[in-house]
Write a structure and sequence with these properties.
Length: 916
C-alpha cells in the first residue's frame, strides 16, 4: 500500500466546496439552498463546551487536540473558531478541517490547544482565534528542520541516523542525538547451548516532512528504516508534536515488522531490543546532578550521581535537604569540611536501569560505571515509565506511555557521571527474551483444504501453511520528553508522571455528537434510566464493560503485541478464557467489540470507556492488520496469535473501527491506517476469502472479483467514505466507488440478499447478476454494516439502495415462511438474532413500520444472546481453581457481549419509547 500523501491534511483547508460539486442530494437533512452562504448565521451553530476526559486539565503535557463534529450546513469551509475559558478569557487555538459533509460544509474540525488551556471547561464558537503569546515557529535549512515552541527549540534531521539533532531551552542544550536503536538476535537457542550474538542497528532517515507548522501546533514526520552495514529493515514512522509555549514534546513511534521468522527454525530476525535514545549533556558538579526514576503511581527514586546524604560525616541538614529536593547545593566551602575534603572518595553512580519484564514486577539497579557490579536499588509492581537525568542547570525528563501494560519495557541511564549521559527508552527490553513471533505449531498434517477444514471443526482455527506470518504487522508507541531548565520539583515531576500515564485529552460532549448526527444519526442516545426497563439495560451495559475491564487485569491481557485486545470465548471447565485454542483465543475485532466500546463512549462521554477503546483501536488497527507485503490492507481472523489464522479478510482491517478515534482526536497515525485501505479492494485479486469452501469454479479476475455485500463491502466502503469525507488524495476515486457500489448492490435481483457480486477493479462497479440468489450469512451485518449503511443513507439520496437495505433488515429476523414468500426460498439456518434486532429497529424508524419496532424488542429479549434471566453477576474465583484470585461470569462470550451492547445502545436510541 502506498503511504498517505501527508500534505493532504494541510491542503484540505484550501479545498473548495468540492463535495458540493458532487451533484447529489443529501438524505434526511435538507441541503443548503443554491447560492446560500454557509456560516455562523445558519442554524445549529451553537457554541460547544469542551471538557477534559480526566480531572486536572492539560497538566504537564505539551498540548491536546480534539475533534468536534458539526451538523450539516452549520459552517462553511472557511469558518474560523475561537476558544474561551470559564472566565471568558480567550484561549489560543489552532483549527483545521477533518471532514466535510457532501454539501461542502464542515463535518469535523480539529482544534489544538497548548499551555494556556488551563484545567477547566472551554467554550468553542465561531470567531477569530486568539494568537498564542509564544507562537510555534518552523524553519527549514540545510540538513535540518527547526521547530520552536517559544520555550524550547528542536532541530530535526532530514537525513542520516539522528532524528533529533538537539533540543535547547534558551541557550542551553538539554538533549542531542535523538535516534532509534534496534538489537537483532539472529537465532534463538531453546536449550542451554550456544552463545547469544547481537547485532546493533540504528535509524536511517529516508524522508522528513513538516505536516503542520503552527501557530499552536507543529507536526514533523520522519520515515526510515533501521540499518547495519548494507542491511536495512524494520521500517519506522515517527511523528514529533510541538505545542506553543510548551517545554515538552510528544513522539508517536511506529514500527512495521518485515523480518523473517520461520516456524521450527532457530535462526531469523529476532528483536532483542527496540528503543529511543538521547544524549544529555551534563554540566553540573556530580553532587548537583540528579536521577529520577518513576516507580508505582507518582512514586519516585530520587538520587544524585554523587550522594551526600547518609554519609558517616554530615555536610549539614540544609545541604542534604537541598540535594534531595534537586536544588543547587551551597558552595562546598560552607559545608562541614570533614565531608568537603573527602568528596573524591564518595562513589559516583553513573548508570541506572529500570526493567519491567512483566505486568507485575519491575526492578531498579545501579552501578558506578561500565565494568563494575550492579547494586539493587528497589523494585515494585508497575512502574510509571518515567525518568529524569540532568542537574541544576537543566535536564531531560522522559516517559513511555503504557509502560507496564506493553511490557517488556526498560529505562536506561548511562554515564551520568561523565560529560554526556545517555538515556534509552526501551520499547522492548534487551533484558527480556527475544521477540519470538514464530507460528506456534507445525501444522499437524493440515496440508490440504479438506484437512484444514477438519482442523477448523475441532479447534476453530483456520490453518494454512505459511499464512501465520507476522510479516507486515505494526505497533505504535507514544513517548513524552521535557526540556527542563533545572531539576523539576517533586510536584512538577508528579505532574509529568501523570501526563505520561494518562495523556490529557479534550473531548466534545455526547450532546454535540448526537446533535451533529455523526457515526449514524439516531443510533445512540445518552444513558436514560427513566423507566425500570431502561435502567435494567443500562445496568447490564455497565456490568459488561466493568467485567471486561476487570478481566484484562485478572487475566493479564497485557504485553507489547497483545495490549488492547480481549479474548473471544471462555472455557467453563478450566475457569479460563480459551487463550490456547485456535479461533477461540484473541478476539481481533470479531463481531465488532470495537464498535460496542466506541458507541458506549459516544453516548456517555466516560473516560474509562474511551481509554479502553483507545487501547483497542491502537492494537486492532496495527497488530491485527498487515501493512506491508501481499496482504497489506487485510486483517487476520481471531486466533491464538494475532496473525496466526489463515483467514485474511477486510472485515478485520475495517476502517469503521478506526474512524471514531481519528475524528475524536485527529490522530495522524490512525489517519494513515484509514487512507492505506482505500485501495485494499486490490487484495481480492491476490487472495480469495472463500477459497476453501467454494463449490463453484472461481479464479480471481480483475474484472470479475467475488466480493460479499456484508463483511467485504462494509470494510471497503468505510475506507472509501472516509477518504471522501476527508478530501484525501484519492477522494474522487473513493467517492465514485461509494456511489457505484451502492448502485450495484441496489440493482441486484435480490439486493443485499443476493449476498455477493462480481466486482470490476478498474471501473469500481458490480456486475448485475442475471438471476436472483439468496446468499445471506449471519456475519454479513455484524462487522459494521448497519452503522455504515445508516451513515450512507443519511448522506446520499439513493432510494433504490435504501430499499435494498431496508429489505435486508426486514427479512433477516423474519420467519422462514416470510423469507420464502419474498425471495422464493428461506435464508437457511441463521443465528445472532439479538444482534440483528438493531437492524429491525433501524428499519422500523426509517420506514415507520410498527411491526418491525415490536419485533426489534421481541428479538432483543427473547431470541439468542443474553437474556434477562442471565445471572448478570460474577462468581468469585480463588485457588486452586484459578491462577490468580478474581471473578468469572462463565455465561459471557465476547461475540454475545459485542452484539448485545450494540443492540441495546441502538434499540434504546431508536425505539426507547416503544419498549414493551
Amino acid at each position: 500500500m502506498s503511504p498517505i500523501d501527508r500534505r493532504f491534511l494541510l491542503k484540505a483547508a484550501a479545498v473548495t466546496g468540492a463535495a458540493a460539486q458532487a451533484g447529489f442530494a443529501l438524505g434526511s437533512t435538507a441541503q443548503a439552498a443554491p447560492g446560500a452562504t454557509l456560516g455562523a448565521e445558519t442554524a445549529d451553530a451553537d457554541p460547544v463546551t469542551l471538557d477534559w476526559l480526566e480531572d486536572g486539565g492539560l497538566g504537564a503535557a505539551p498540548g491536546s487536540t480534539v475533534g468536534v463534529p458539526w451538523p450539516k450546513g452549520a459552517y462553511g469551509k472557511e469558518q474560523k473558531f475561537a476558544l474561551t475559558d470559564a472566565d471568558g478569557k480567550a484561549v489560543p487555538v489552532q483549527t483545521w478541517p477533518l471532514a466535510y459533509w457532501p454539501d461542502g460544509s464542515l463535518k469535523w474540525t480539529a482544534h489544538a490547544v497548548g499551555t494556556g488551556a488551563g484545567a477547566g471547561k472551554l467554550t468553542l464558537a465561531a470567531g477569530s482565534p486568539a494568537a498564542p503569546e509564544k507562537k510555534i515557529t518552523v524553519s527549514s535549512g540545510g540538513g535540518t528542520i527547526e521547530v520552536s515552541t517559544g520555550v524550547i527549540t528542536a532541530k530535526i534531521g532530514k537525513s542520516g541516523s539522528t532524528l533529533v539533532k538537539s533540543v535547547r531551552r534558551g541557550p542551553t542544550e538539554i538533549a542531542r542525538d535523538g535516534r532509534l536503536v534496534l538489537l537483532r538476535q539472529p537465532e534463538i537457542e531453546d536449550g542451554d547451548q550456544g552463545a547469544t550474538k547481537l547485532e546493533r542497528f540504528e535509524s536511517v532517515i529516508s524522508e522528513t516532512e513538516v505536516e503542520q507548522n503552527g501557530p499552536v501546533r507543529a507536526v514533523v514526520r520522519i520515515d526510515g528504516k533501521h540499518r547495519k552495514g548494507s542491511r536495512s529493515w524494520l521500517p519506522f514512522s515517527i511523528r514529533l508534536y510541538f505545542y506553543a509555549g510548551a517545554e515538552s514534546f510528544r513522539m508517536v513511534h511506529t514500527i512495521t515488522f518485515d523480518g523473517t521468522q520461520e516456524p521450527g527454525k532457530a535462526s531469523g530476525d529476532f528483536i532483542r531490543g527496540l528503543g529511543v535514545r538521547f544524549t544529555v549533556p551534563m554540566r553540573d558538579e556530580s553532587y548537583d546532578r540528579h536521577i529520577r526514576i518513576g516507580g508505582e503511581g507518582t512514586g519516585m527514586l530520587r538520587e544524585a550521581v554523587k550522594g551526600i546524604t547518609g554519609l558517616r560525616r554530615d555536610p549539614g541538614a540544609a545541604v542534604q535537604a537541598a540535594q534531595y529536593e534537586g536544588q543547587k547545593l551551597p558552595d562546598p566551602a560552607t559545608w562541614d569540611q570533614r565531608v568537603t575534603t573527602r568528596l573524591q572518595y564518595i562513589p559516583e553512580w553513573g548508570d541506572y536501569t529500570l526493567s519491567q519484564l512483566s505486568a507485575d514486577g519491575f526492578t531498579v539497579r545501579k552501578r558506578t560505571k561500565k565494568g563494575h557490579g550492579w547494586i539493587g536499588a528497589g523494585g515494585g509492581r508497575r512502574a510509571s515509565g518515567f525518568g529524569y537525568v540532568g542537574g541544576v542547570s537543566g535536564g531531560l525528563s522522559f516517559g513511555l506511555r503504557d509502560f507496564w501494560e506493553k511490557f517488556p519495557a526498560q529505562l536506561d541511564i548511562r554515564d551520568a557521571h561523565t560529560d554526556e549521559a545517555e538515556v534509552t527508552l526501551w520499547l522492548w527490553s534487551p533484558e527480556a527474551q527475544p521477540m519470538d513471533l514464530r507460528f506456534y505449531h507445525d501444522g499437524m498434517g493440515q496440508d490440504t483444504y479438506a484437512e484444514q477444514l477438519e482442523g477448523l471443526n475441532i479447534t476453530y482455527e483456520d490453518y494454512e501453511p505459511e499464512f501465520g506470518t507476522p510479516y507486515g504487522i505494526a505497533r505504535t508507541s507514544e513517548l513524552l520528553f521535557w526540556a527542563n531548565e533545572t531539576t523539576p520539583s517533586p510536584e512538577q515531576l508528579a505532574r509529568q508522571v501523570e501526563a505520561v500515564r494518562v495523556l490529557p485529552q479534550l473531548a466534545a460532549p455526547p450532546k454535540q455528537l448526537i446533535k451533529a448526527g455523526v457515526f449514524g444519526p439516531g443510533l445512540y442516545s445518552e444513558p436514560d434510566r427513566s423507566t425500570p426497563a431502561k435502567a435494567k439495560i443500562e445496568d447490564h451495559l455497565d456490568f459488561l464493560f466493568t467485567y471486561y475491564k476487570d478481566q484484562v487485569e485478572m487475566r493479564r491481557w497485557y504485553g507489547f503485541w497483545d495490549y488492547g485486545d480481549i479474548m473471544h470465548t471462555y472455557d467453563t471447565v478450566r475457569h479460563q478464557w480459551r487463550y490456547d485454542i485456535g479461533g477461540y483465543a484473541w478476539d481481533n475485532s470479531e463481531l465488532s467489540p470495537d464498535l460496542w466500546l466506541w458507541y458506549a463512549y459516544l453516548r456517555s462521554g466516560r473516560a474509562d470507556i474511551f481509554r479502553f477503546a483507545e487501547a483497542m483501536t491502537r492494537h486492532t488497527g496495527e497488530v491485527d492488520v498487515y501493512h506491508l507485503g501481499k496482504w497489506a490492507g487485510l486483517g487476520t481472523r481471531h486466533g491464538v496469535q494475532h496473525y496466526a489464522d489463515s483467514a485474511k479478510q477486510q472485515r478485520i482491517a475495517n476502517t469503521t473501527y478506526r474512524r471514531f478515534y481519528y475524528f475524536l482526536t485527529a490522530d495522524e497515525r490512525v489517519g494513515d491506517l484509514m487512507h492505506a485501505n482505500v485501495d485494499s479492494d486490490e487484495t481480492f485479486l491476490i487472495l480469495d476469502p472463500n477459497r476453501k469452501v467454494r463449490t463453484d469454479p472461481y479464479t480471481p479476475d480483475r474484472h470479475a472479483l467475488s466480493i460479499g455485500f456484508g463483511t467485504d463491502w462494509s470494510g471497503l466502503v468505510s475506507a472509501w467514505l472516509t477518504e471522501w469525507e476527508r478530501k484525501g488524495p484519492k477522494w474522487e476515486k473513493a467517492k465514485a466507488r461509494v456511489l457505484s457500489t451502492m448502485e450495484g448492490i441496489a440493482a441486484q435481483p435480490n439486493g443485499f440478499v443476493q449476498g455477493s457480486g462480481l466486482y470490476d477493479l478498474d471501473t469500481g462497479k458490480f456486475a448485475v447478476a442475471e438471476k436472483p440468489v439468496v446468499g445471506v450469512s449471519h456475519l454479513s451485518a455484524v462487522f459494521g454494516l448497519n452503522e455504515l449503511c445508516a451513515e450512507l443513507i443519511d448522506l446520499i439520496d439513493m432510494p433504490e439502495f435504501n430499499e435494498a437495505y431496508y429489505d435486508y433488515c426486514r427479512y433477516f429476523n423474519a420467519t422462514k415462511a416470510e423469507q420464502a414468500a419474498r425471495y422464493g426460498s428461506n435464508f437457511g439456518s441463521l443465528i445472532l438474532f439479538q444482534g440483528h434486532s438493531r437492524l429491525d429497529a433501524y428499519a422500523a424508524v426509517q420506514t415507520g413500520d410498527e411491526k418491525l419496532a415490536t419485533r426489534a424488542w421481541e428479538k432483543f429479549y427473547n431470541s439468542d444472546g443474553y437474556k434477562e434471566s442471565a445471572p448478570w453477576k460474577t462468581e468469585e474465583l480463588t485457588g486452586p481453581a484459578t491462577l490468580v484470585p478474581g471473578s468469572e461470569a462463565a455465561w459471557i462470550s465476547t461475540n454475545d457481549t459485542a452484539l448485545y451492547g450494540l443492540a441495546a445502545i441502538e434499540n434504546l436510541a431508536l425505539l426507547g419509547d416503544k419498549m414493551p
